[in-house]
Batch of 2 targets.
Target 1
Amino acid sequence: MGSLDTRRLIVCRHGERCDFCFSTHRFHWLDKAIDEAGRYQPFNLNLPRNLPKRRGGYDSFRHDTPLTEMGYLQAKLIGRAFRDREIKPHHVFVSPSLRCIQTAIGILKGMNENHTKLHIEPGLFEWMRFCRNVAPSWLTVDECLAAGYPVYQDYIPVVKETELNMNESLIDFYDRSHLVSKTLLSRYPTGNLLFVAHGATLDTCTRQLCGEAPRSNEEFFEIVQKTPYLSSIEARQTGAEQFEIIGTPVPPLAHSANAAYDSQYLTTPGYANNTDTL
Amino acid sequence: MGSLDTRRLIVCRHGERCDFCFSTHRFHWLDKAIDEAGRYQPFNLNLPRNLPKRRGGYDSFRHDTPLTEMGYLQAKLIGRAFRDREIKPHHVFVSPSLRCIQTAIGILKGMNENHTKLHIEPGLFEWMRFCRNVAPSWLTVDECLAAGYPVYQDYIPVVKETELNMNESLIDFYDRSHLVSKTLLSRYPTGNLLFVAHGATLDTCTRQLCGEAPRSNEEFFEIVQKTPYLSSIEARQTGAEQFEIIGTPVPPLAHSANAAYDSQYLTTPGYANNTDTL
């Protein structure tokens, strides 16, 4: 258990999202995956076989996307790498986004940690400006439990859902993220903390903690674009109130894309010139 | 078990290859993954954790690449889809390439078929011109068994390794592939056959079987380029000697790419402009 010199805060991004993978300018993935009888029918093997039940029905996944199958594997690979390197997170906090909850579960599965539970922390949600004026809507704790997700029922968040501000500035977002890191590190004074959240979180939850100022908009967007799925960063405690970024605690995870196969290529002469394959 | 009207030949491509994913114009993945002491040290979480032992040592993987972790998952997803659709291959034949053997194992794992064994068929190897004058070198049956791969020891191949011709023309390749399909369908007169081989195999093992002529070079390359990992095609028997292509037996599998994360983006000002991330 974390003495001062070994105490770590590890922050991870979630895995591959269904919407980014399957929605195009022509259609939203859900519109293609729900049949006329209102049943979910995955049209691609990388879509989840089943979706958790939630009060808003399937339509709620439109603004709270699940992971793809690959996304879940990405999470398990990172978890296995933590385990290989004997990195044990004692307290796990997740953004309430479904993709983050599912990623955290994949990480724990990869670590073979069957008894660790998740603290759902709305303060770890992404920059509110990324919501594009649609208020977030997440699974309730009861819905998580019904889906078999191991979440704490009595956790008191640092930032409540109702305290999130749709017009949050970038500085506000850095300050909110820093408040979460600082408060949780003080509430849980021993052991390693793992945050599973969004691309920007790697920076926003560690930046001020390590004594730096929030970034400019330009730098921020640059950083977010350079943060692939399951990126992770480790900040280590070097003094009573001092933290330092050590780097990524595990090797990176890179893989190539795979297009959808269309068997008409084999049977229709000239068909192979068609290029729209995903 | 296959009566005439339900008998199927299913042909699949292997999954994501380590070399295509990790070798660049600057280095071969193996050169980066073998340390000075000659030990294998995966530098990315998508590389296999361990490699099977083989007589030529690690260097043999240079021309006989293993699957990536994602490649193995792709295979399991296809196997699960076969199982969901109650597609049962009674006889499984694989190209001797390691990536094909590992893919077949992933498919069987996804199907929950723990007792099915693989027939290693050199006649299913890819077009010899793709070897670029390097003679193929595969795991021996004993090496497969030592690695825990469930292969038949006494299978007599349709085409022996020594019968493969380094200067094979495209027509020769179509004829070899057709010979394999025809011979195996006649040797195994009942049940479904599954071939796990290469991109071109989907066409070359079914084309003449379904009464079509081999393709031109131009059409061939177009088709190969349009055959992603784990593409699969089903030909169904419609008469004593007649087969017809039905299409792909399962939904397609599409996913996006993921770049390697470089944590220096967070700590080095201006570093994010560097673009070489895989």
Note: Chain A is about 30% helix and 10% strand.
Target 2
Amino acid sequence: MGIMLSYQEARAWLLERARPLRTHQNVSLSQACGRVLALPVQAGVDVPPHDNSAMDGYAVRCADLAAALPVSQRVPAGSVPLALQAGTIARIFTGAPIPPGADAVIMQEQATAGEDGKVSFTVVPQPGQNIRRRGEDIANGQVILEAGKMLTPADLGLAASIGLASLPALPTLRVAVFFTGDELVEPGQPLGAGQIYNSNRYWLVPALHKLGCEVIDLGHVGDALEPTRQLLRDAAAVADVIVTCGGVSVGEEDHVKAAVEAEGELTLWKVAIKPGKPLAYGKVGDADFIGLPGNPVSGFVTLQTLVKPFLQRRMGLDVPPPEAQCLPAAFAWDRPDAKRSEFLRVRKVAGELQLYPQQGSGVLMSCAWADGLVWLQPGQVVKPGDALAYLEMA
Amino acid sequence: MGIMLSYQEARAWLLERARPLRTHQNVSLSQACGRVLALPVQAGVDVPPHDNSAMDGYAVRCADLAAALPVSQRVPAGSVPLALQAGTIARIFTGAPIPPGADAVIMQEQATAGEDGKVSFTVVPQPGQNIRRRGEDIANGQVILEAGKMLTPADLGLAASIGLASLPALPTLRVAVFFTGDELVEPGQPLGAGQIYNSNRYWLVPALHKLGCEVIDLGHVGDALEPTRQLLRDAAAVADVIVTCGGVSVGEEDHVKAAVEAEGELTLWKVAIKPGKPLAYGKVGDADFIGLPGNPVSGFVTLQTLVKPFLQRRMGLDVPPPEAQCLPAAFAWDRPDAKRSEFLRVRKVAGELQLYPQQGSGVLMSCAWADGLVWLQPGQVVKPGDALAYLEMA
């Protein structure tokens, strides 16, 4: 009838069950931001590919520089220079290849052209100065991107810089969602007596998108067993993970629980977190089933603290332990929960944590206002100035 | 010939020129994540809309509870209860309206049903217990979302919870990008002598997407004035902001500078940041023009530190001053730049900052490896353990 787990136990238990996606596909760079890299990427070239100029200026042979010298060639970026003739210099621009025989670049601000066209310099250059060497930044064969990372803009620029037009990425995790309850009405519709708006749909779908999932929104089903079973089968056919809100506590009206048990298997927990507590994990066919609490704040916090790491590992990401920042409280909290870890909704202002005054779980106001959660241990009280564990909500 | 500005001066100068978008449109909740809210949102209803049960259990009148009592009605969520008959209790479920006359809910775990169907309780309830009051979370008329914020999943759930199907959002900022240089080759193509891959395109476009911009990628143009002028006119016709990489320093080969000056106006700066330095701001028609340095690392860091706040304010967001975390260094740095603010590419590991060993600006390796920047003042050296200003790269 429900196992009671600590926050850490529940997190570890879920993570153990997150089988990372394995098959991969080549994804073009312009589609790859936010995808998870399936294999390490090795450079197949040197970067830069040739010695080149770090400046707009003049390529010189240091030994020649006793007097003003004539300019024997002009080397814009993208051109192929000739060998530098003895006793001459080359006009050169940033990124342009260094002419064979030149051993330094002098920036143009340190050059003066005489009336005869010869150029003299206000400095004595060191050999190698203002030259970027071939392979200095990336050597042929070097691993430049590790598997299991979510690809960032900089990663894609890096891949492009070595000529890769695509990268081996894991598939996007497909997450099906549906929403249950006779009392739910879609926003924009009039509200009848005893009805409430379906708010879970409108935070859950974008929150899953932000994590990098493909979301399959199967809509709303009333409190009835057969339609719920049908929706579960539909969801399992198209998704890697099924997420619902509500219908998984121990009350009689919870058809989701009965439907998952009929179509697969289900473990119900109580997790010692507040807001939160009821959480269900199961399997329907080959899909994972996650049942979030129906209360929006409980569901939101449970997604952030427990389900997000599960989904991230399921996507193939390396998931580190929760990394809390240590920040001072600008508030007091003297109503600790004796048995549960509490996640207070807070906002970081000028390096301090401010508390949303109403921490009740009835409405998402606190979550909309907050930019993060303070993770309190069971029984922990807070005095202003106490150092607290702050988890940013991305 | 280029004004030299400090980092803070350049940031403030750019922000002053960022005219926030003004016209707005109603955007359905399912399309609104990441959009900027144009007007404050006031609640037009109470939340919750009626007193309701916080538990699965029994709705009772506390004064009646001397003995075991019969269950006179059953109130699932979404139903409309009758007034509670004196001397009876109501079976009730989470979220269901409280029957008139009931003044507390007792959780089902504290109830025992006898063989006669009457229910007795192991606790003495307090009036009001386990009841969520109408309007307790949001009162009719309350401002729930402030203008100028980027809409998050929680904001959308909150809007849905009060029945709003759409929100007044500013338009998505349209940013046109193009890339210049005879030496540039697209990744996947063979590289000729003196050529390099166009890496700027592949980090800049997704970085702008991540900021919430619509990106119009106008491709690549060679080092020639007329095609560059045409591209600028095309860009100004469709975009709010034009961003290019390269072509804006003082060298002769910089056709972008000449093209912007011919089609509009341009201010060239040297900004005392490293990597970075050259930056251009101008106007072409009604569009802003931003010229990033052509070096990928310089361009990337300049986008993160200077252009991102400009674009955010241009999008209509409230842009706070850069909020640095204060974190200890796990490295030493004894090569400070005497005159420029330096942005070192670092990674946060177990609460400490690790340095990418090659801080040269030749390649995006450091930016791909890093999760943030350390902001050093001119001349600042670093010893292990020093507290540093860390800017996360989102």
Note: Chain B has four domains: 3-21+172-314, 25-46+140-169, 52-132, 325-392.
